[in-house]
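User: Run a structure prediction on this.
Assistant: Running it now.
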Amino acid sequence: MDAIVKMLEKHQPFFEKISRNIYLQAIKDGFLGCMPIVLTSSIFLLIATLPGVVGVTLPQPLIDWCNKLYNFTMGVMGIMVAGTTAKNFTASMNRRMPAGKVLNDGSTMVAAQCSMLLLAVTQFTTKFNGSELSVFDCTSMGTRGLFSAYIAAFITVWVYKFCVSRDLTIKLPKEVPGAIAQNFRDIIPFGGAVIICGIIDVVVRNLMGVPFSELLIKLLSPLFTAAETYPGLILIQAATAFFWFIGVHGPSIVQPGIDPIRLANQAENLQVLLAGGHPAHSLTFNMSLVGEFGGTGATFIVPLLLILFMKSKQLKAVGKASIVPVAFAVNEPLLFGAPMILNPYMLIPFVAAGCVNVSVAKFFIDNVGMNGFSFVVPWATPAPIGIFITTNFQLIALVFVAIIILLDAIIYLPFLKAYDKLLCDQEAERAAELGLESDGAAAIAASTSAPAVEQTAAVTASVEPTAAAADSKPVADQPEPAADASAKKDVDGLKVLVLCAGAGTSAMLANAIKEGAAQTGENIASSAGAYGQHTAIMDQYDVIVLAPQVRSYYNDMKADTDRLGIKLLAPRGKEYIDLTRDPAGAIKWLRENLD
């Protein structure tokens, strides 16, 4: 097992390179930028539909109003994603542009949205009340048009890069204000992107008789069908867990390619549910509640197992510290605290638990009558609650939750026990070594005037903390040294932005910094955010901290922070978790890492 982990660790740079692929990053960050649409629209949908589950009938005008809000938000998801994907892809491309040549991200965003409409939307005329009207078929403006959105975004940015790199722009005299001149410089690339997508649209419609968005769905439907089988679901979940196990944020690699079909399937499930049928799609957006039950690796039950069944002081401490975050799908304290990442004992259960969960979910959907997930809930919703809500409050869903909790416990327990034995042996050896040292100290103390009580107290203090406890509170266990005036000035007035993949793990450190600032009297402001949504606000901060899950983006981020004169810090996994538990230590760490 150690050999396997060492081999995986050896190839970690390759997998990190995949995660830094600019196309995957643009898709992930573009979709993340539109998550408020998904979550907000789902709230209105829940208001319109869930009261009927308990026999409450809402006024029809209220239902119609909620449905309108849903349709006018989720219904234009594709257009919005085209813009946000282009904006993020432009940011990545600008890092690779020659000096002095920059792509206008506002212009690429609008051009991509226009291009997406050309690829996905059908316009036709119809008669209404005796008048001829021009009508848009909105079917592909939402989640069905996500693939067209990505294609439009990539084509647009590449056209802009081609034109700007070669100065194929309209140049005005230098006396013309910059904002006006920029508009003219963007005419040629904007027109080029729209024309190219327009030509693609004409060719596809004439040859295939369908819009480009429908062509992609037809061509990829065999792949999507295969993905929704048992082997397909298992492969997706295994890949997500595998990448995270080697320290690369798995969802960032796996999910961008399947998000369009996951959202489309969930929308189709909703339509079937509202029509009174049985939603049967298992590959849906909120299937992550099952495969990542408590976070990647299906770790929901693990902290409780550590507390109840482990003897190692380290594992018990990690279990107590992680039980609340893991309940809300923030399992980094567990992943880096136990640790589970690159831990040979954890490879099999970390990958297997999620695979078993999705297989059981598909069986329940296909054979037991449990609804496929139809509503969207935030990723940080506790998994049992989220599963219950998104299956339309089916009691069978609670039975399903109980079963996968039991199965995950059975999968993890033997491996945790084996790892616990190893740690207990190590802790015993460490205690024995410290005991020998204390015997020597006592002999020395007997020949000096030092009180024996003080020596005993010192030995006890050195033996009591475990390695985990000592690591998790490296500063708070000791008196905070007074900072001199110059050191205090270094951090006074700092604005710190902490970034992770979904703004969950980053909030832990941001909160610790706030608490530490209050304890030490420092004037420090800290905020949490998601990597990919930081570009518009990063220039407002003095320091940016990358959480371990997005540490692979360090080089790209460094190019931006150096340009803006921002200090970039990227603590490793265990160090990061330690800082989240030690507010005063987080302030000291900031002070020590500033130039």
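The beta strands are 122-128, 131-137, 494-500, 524-530, 543-546, 567-569.
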